[in-house]
């Protein structure tokens, strides 16, 4: 004969012993990532209320079961899909149209003191800026 063990609390309400249990660390990690992802490990620990060592110990279990994945330095649930940046989308379209990527290094010119003999100003190139772009041939296909 199976008997259910019910207990009474101060308000004389029934509750089971299993109702008293709290979430495990794995469930806390999943709940924290469900609310906001991807997150760095310290932010996952803060949201889940666990220590960093507990996170790494349980992460291996969650990763083996394919519930959590690592994206760079951040962690996310199995269903999370990274959206490409706008630059990646534009660059992909440009490459499909026959373009090729280039990097330009632009130097900012600043005029220094004037030479007393020639009257020319001294040229100073002190600031370098790297610009990424795509060169598209004139006979390229449509971009969109």
How far apart the termini lie comes to 72 Å
CATH superfamily of the largest domain: Winged helix-like DNA-binding domain superfamily/Winged helix DNA-binding domain
Q: How many individual domains?
A: 2
Order of helices and strands: EEHHHEEHEE
**Which radius of gyration do the C-alpha atoms yield?**
30 Å
Sheet with the most strands, sense and barrel status: 2 strands, antiparallel
Report the CATH C-level class of the largest domain. Mainly Alpha
Summary tags:
single chain, 144 residues, alpha+beta, Arc Repressor Mutant, subunit A, two-stranded antiparallel sheet, two-stranded antiparallel ribbon, 31% strand, elongated
Description:
The protein is of the alpha+beta class and 144 residues long. The protein folds into 2 domains: 21-77, Winged helix-like DNA-binding domain superfamily/Winged helix DNA-binding domain (Arc Repressor Mutant, subunit A), CATH 1.10.10; 86-135, no CATH class. The protein contains 4 helices and 6 strands; from the N terminus they run ββαααββαββ. The strands form 3 sheets. The protein has a two-stranded antiparallel ribbon with strand order 1-2. A hairpin with a 2-residue loop joins strand 3 and strand 4 (74-77). The longest helix has 13 residues, at 52-64.
């Amino acid at each position: 004969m199976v008997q259910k063990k019910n207990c009474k609390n101060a308000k004389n309400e029934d509750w089971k012993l299993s109702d008293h249990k709290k979430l495990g660390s794995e469930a806390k990690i999943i709940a924290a990532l469900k609310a906001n992802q991807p997150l760095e490990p310290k932010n996952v620990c803060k949201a889940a209320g666990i220590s960093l060592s507990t996170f790494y110990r349980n992460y291996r279990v969650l990763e083996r079961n394919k519930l959590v994945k690592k994206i760079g330095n951040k962690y996310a649930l199995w269903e999370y899909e990274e959206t490409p940046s706008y630059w990646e989308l534009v660059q992909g379209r440009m490459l499909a149209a026959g373009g090729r990527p280039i990097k330009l290094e632009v130097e900012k010119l600043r005029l220094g003191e004037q030479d007393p003999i020639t009257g020319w100003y001294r040229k100073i190139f002190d600031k370098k800026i790297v610009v990424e772009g795509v060169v598209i041939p004139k006979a390229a296909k449509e971009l969109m």
